[in-house]
């Protein structure tokens, strides 16, 4: 049942990412729901499912946006970093998700 939720979640996030969120850009930087989803999935799950999720979501995003596969590499690296930090983190997982999103999003934007 969980795999079906993920299969429906990725296209819904892609539609929001491609259609709605470019309208909310600030000086050329738009919110990246795929990155936030990859961070949240990495916090809530183990390393391998998080890596597969971030790889699939970022690859689909690259295919739809005619990218050069930087999104795939960046989101897989972020997912693995979050999974590594998660093992040493003591505290609420929702605070961890919010904190890592705030820290890692500017780093990915600088890489683009």
TrEMBL record:
The chain crosses the membrane at residues 6-26. Keywords: Membrane, Transmembrane, Transmembrane helix. This is Rod shape-determining protein MreD. It comes from Candidatus Saganbacteria bacterium.
